[in-house]
Structures are given as C-alpha cells and as structure tokens.
Amino acid sequence: MKRALLTIGVIFIVLWSITPIYWALNLSLMYHFEVYSVPAHLFPEHPTLYNYLRSLGFSVFNPFTNRVDPPVGYPVKEALINSLIVASIVSLITIAIATPAGYALGRYRTKHTGLLTTLLLGSRTLPPVSILIPLYVIGLRYRLIGTIYGISVMHLALVLPLITWILMGFFSTFPSEIEKAARIDGATRLQAIIHVVIPTALPAIASAGLLSFLFSYNEYLFSWVFTSGTPAQTIQPTLASMWFMIGEINIMAASTILSLIVPIMISLYFQKYIIQVRLVDPYAIAFE
Amino acid sequence: MVEVRLEHITKIFGKTIAVNDLNVVIRDKEFFVLLGPSGCGKTTTLNIVAGLEKPTSGRVYFDDEDVTFLPPEERNIAMVFQSYALYPTMTAYDNIAFPLKIRRLPRDEIHKRVREVAEMLRIEHLLDKKPHQMSGGERQRVALARAIVRQPRLFLMDEPLSNIDAKLRITARTELIRLQRELGVTTIYVTHDQTEAFTMGHRIGVMFSGRLLQVGSPLEIFECPVNTTVAGFIGIPPMNFIEGHIVYDEGLGKFYFKWSEIALEVESVVAEKAGGHGKSVIAGIRPQNLQIIKGESYGKVNLAFKAKVYTVERLGTESVIVVSVGGELLRAIAPPELTPSLDEDVVVKIVNPSKVLFFNKSTGDLIA
User: Is it true that B4-233 and B240-360 share their CATH fold?
Assistant: First the structure.
C-alpha cells in the first residue's frame, strides 16, 4: 500500500515538474492560430521551427498568413550569448578561486579559521536586495553597469562565498592520508595537491562549477538592474520583459525553451563527474 | 638501511602531551614494533619520524644526519598506512609508479621496477585495476608495492593489518615478516595488537600515554616487564595482580597474600629491595602459572588457596577459568578437560613460583 502511494506521489511530482516544460515545448512548435485551439492540442498539428527562428532574430515566412514576419523585437539571441559568457566566466573564476580557498580553509584549522569563515559567510546573511541601490551607485561610478564584466563581478560576489564554504566543508572531510602518502612518495605539497588531491576532488569541483554556472545563468535581480536595456542584457531579464508578448505566446515559449537548452546540456554532461558530494546547505535556500 | 635515533622527542598539542620525552635507538635492518593502546602516541611518534609532524622539542637522526626538520619527501622513506592511502583515481600501476614518476625516473626504468615489485608481491594481474575494484588484501599489497618500489632506507607502517579480515591477517603477517627479513630494510611498525608485535618484531617498544615504558625483545618484555602497566598489557589473558606484603626475616623473605595465610618464598634480593619488613607489594602471577585443582586435596598442597569459580571461558585447546577470592577476580589457564561449574569451590595452586614478579605498590615498578 505504501509502495503504491509512493509511486503515485513520485509520478505526480514528475508530472508536476515536467508538464509546464512540455507545454512550453508544445506551444513553441506551433503557429499562432493553433495556440488557443479548443480542445487544446497536446501535440502540434503543424509543427514548425518558425518561433525559434523568429526568436533568434530572423525573418520567417509564415505559410498560413502568406507574409514574412519580422524577427522578435527582443534581443533574445544576444541575451543568450551574454548569459552564456557571463555564466562561464563566473563558474571558471569561481572554481579557480574557491577550490584553493576551500582547501586552505578546510584542511588547515588555525585560530583564525572561525573569523575568516564568519567574514566569508557574513556577506551572504544580508539579502542582496537590501544593498541593491548602494551597489547600483557603486556600479555607476566604476562603470560596471551595462557591461559583461560588471555583471560578472556582481555574480562572483554573490556566488564565491557560498561555493567556497561548500568546498571548505568538503575538504575538511577529505582524507588527508592520501596527501601524506604523496608527500612521503616524494611529492612537494604543491605536487601532492595537483596530482592527487584535485583529481580525487574532481566531483566536488565539478559540482561547484555547475552550481555557480547555474546560479549565474538563472540570476534575475542583479542582471535586470545592471544590464537591462544595455547591450550586455542577459537572458533572464530578457525573458521576463517579453511578457508583453503574451499575445504571441508561442514565441515566448520558443525563447524560453531556447534558454533551457544549454543549462540542461551542461547539467547532463556534468552528472557523470558528480558522484557523491555532500552539500552542507541546499542551494535553493541560500540563492535567490 | 639506516639506524634511527630519537632523542628527547616531545610533542604537545594544545594542552595534551602526546609524546613525552621519548628516547630510543632503532638499529639498522631491525624490525622495531611500537606497541601500545589507542591514543598512546605511537602514531604521532611515527609521523614525527616520517616528517609529517615536527616535534615540539627533541631531535630525530637517520644515522648521523639530523633530519628533524627535513620534509618527508626528502627523507627517502616509505610509509604504509592503515587505510593504505592509495590514490583512488589511478590504476594500481600508476599508484606504484607514482613515487618514481615524481622523481622523474625514465619510463623504461619505471616499468621495469614496477614489474619486479608486482611479481614479488604477486599482483601483476591487478596492475590495470583501480583501488575501488580491489579487495582489502589486494589493496594492501599494492600499498606495500608502492612502498618497496623506491628502495627506501626506512619502512614505516601504521597498523597496516588492522583493516584485513582475521584469516587473511595471519597470512599477510607471515608475508610481511618474510619480506622484511629478505629486503633487510629497517622497519618501524606501529600496532596495538600484541600478537603482531611478538611474532614480527626483533624488539618491541611499549608505549603508554605518550611515554615509552620499555624497550626489549619480546621475551624480555614478557619475562621482565618493567612495571605493572607493561605487565598488565602484555600477555593474554592478562597477568593477575595480588596485593600482599613482604616480611624479611633473618635472610629469609616471605610474601604474604592479602587474603590468605599462605606465604610465598621470596628471594632475599627482592625482599631487601622491597624495603624490608612489612612492606606492601603487588605480586604478579600469570594465568599460565595458576593451576586449578578440584577436590579436597587443599590441605596437602603447597602454595594453594581456596577460591570460587566465577566464569569458565572455553577456548577449545584450553580454558580460562576466572575465580573469585578475597573479593578479587583471578584468571587461570586450565586444560580443556577440566570443567568446573559456576560457584564451585576449587583449589588454586601456584606453579613456577620463581616466575612470580613483585611490584612496588605505589609506583608499580618491578622490584629487582
């Protein structure tokens, strides 16, 4: 009996999560007239890539209205590229910095470790919204507004503390004997870290990279404040601003699906590196 | 091959003294065992010899070289850990080759040496496997291979056999003994298992709470433990300790048990050292030297006393009979045929009275 309930529960949750995405996919492959059909079409009768092409900035011929329709009035393609660039920069720099920092903090406990950790995490106890305006002023001053560089810096400030903390937790439970063995085998501390610790810690590092990438890619608030209306506009604010296109919901759907492709692919790719990483804090709570 | 000398090694962590003024010389080619219960400081001492820790004070010498502050990678030693510490992302071959690669040996030389060592330990078939694909015994041999392949001048082993199941442990022990004798490399072996210590070591150093209590051959430690701590730790089942006092009268010493009228003759030398008349001492009698006699023959037997059976532990080849007398529990070894019942009255006889040891009651040190 319990088994049946569990299965039903699981099926329910899966459907709950998948249905919106499925529906968006469905709509994205339809022409406009099909969208509001009654009864609703679970599958497009005239599937087409028309919406995708328009989202990406092309003019497409619509066989049902015999007109060439213009590309969407929102910079979807540019925003996608911007988001990818920002997220990549953020995740690469995060890995580069958080790994040695997490290692140093996690492996070597000194009397300063507590203080450093508090300083590190202290910045995250403040809701980012509350410092938004001062940050904007700073951003204006240092020309961080409207540049890829600027928003990357903002994201790094948000992401680095938590990722460092997660890796710190990981490295503190990392068996130190492997390092000792490497040192006895003749490796210097640095060689031991490069040849032994990092390959063994790869799952954790890959997770850190993935988390920071997803965080940056999904981030809306700072991206909107700092980049909207500028050439550096990222995808989340762009998608959000497209709600005025509610009349052409199939194009919205196509843009949304487009924004999902890269994260899904990257997540699937990194799955194989993430075998078992004990995350100390569920990121859903800590991130916006 | 190296002689290791530890002089006044002390290691303090915060408020705890982990190693307290340790002095010992480990001879060239010797298999030296550091024996002691968990937390006595033996692993810390090993780490200091390895260079993974620096002593708070004291010096470590390899032959005549002061290596106290030399980093481990420059000491030319090899270490086998309790958990083997194999590199999980590398195959057995890469694990064994790692120390050679780090030293930038040419590839064919590496290949040759790895093969040699793999043959010696019979693990050629494992060379392509990763640690998580091997059993405990196989991993241990790969760890050993990695230690041997460098031809170091010193082996350090930290309880390498504790993670193997009991049956395999015995064969592994035999192989280790053979290997060490063949290679002739000085070895320092840390363990809490007496059997390992006794069967493998040339000499044993017994450690307790950071102090090295006694160093000697297995036989020396068994026959002449330097105090009650060592005496109580060595020997299975543990030694019985009985309180009493010694009376020294006209050149004749007698030890009187606390709860009995029997007197044990004591060598005058010992009696003198015991501080003369009426001094309280503790007698140590090994279970092997207590014999259980059933029946009424009490009055006629020398050096015997009455006791009540507390428990009987049958081991197949012998039995351990625990008796209670005078409010204390004593252990005796008996042949398997003897099967007293609980609470039965038996007679316990002291055999080999010359093997009884006497300890100072307040300090626990051996007298004479």
Answer: no
| Residues of chain B with C-beta less than 8 angstroms from the C-beta of A180 | 50, 52, 72, 79, 81, 85
Closest alpha carbon within chain B to A179: B85
* Token output for B75: 């000491």
CB neighbours of residue A142 within 10 Å: 10
Task: Give the side-chain half-sphere CA count within 13 A for A235.
Answer: 27
Residue B144 touches partner A, C-beta closer than 8 Å? no
d(CA A179, CA A203): 17
For domain B240-360, the CATH superfamily is Nucleic acid-binding proteins (2.40.50.140)
pLDDT tens, position by position, A212-244: 999 999 999 999 989 888 888 888 888 888 887
The residue to which tokens 């080849």 are assigned: B317
* Angle at A282 (CA atoms; ends A279, A283), nearest 5 degrees: 105
Domain ranges of chain B: 4-233, 240-360
The pTM (predicted TM-score) of the whole model is 0.74
Q: Does domain B4-233 have CATH number 3.40.50.300?
A: yes
Asked if this assembly's ipTM is beyond 0.90, the reply is no
Give the chain A residue whose CA is nearest to the CA of B89.
A200
Task: For residues A31 and A181, give the distance between their C-alpha atoms in angstroms, rounded to a whole number.
Answer: 64
Do the chains contact at A175 and B77, CB–CB below 8 Å? no
Please calculate the CA angle B135-B137-B143 and round it to the nearest 5 degrees: 100
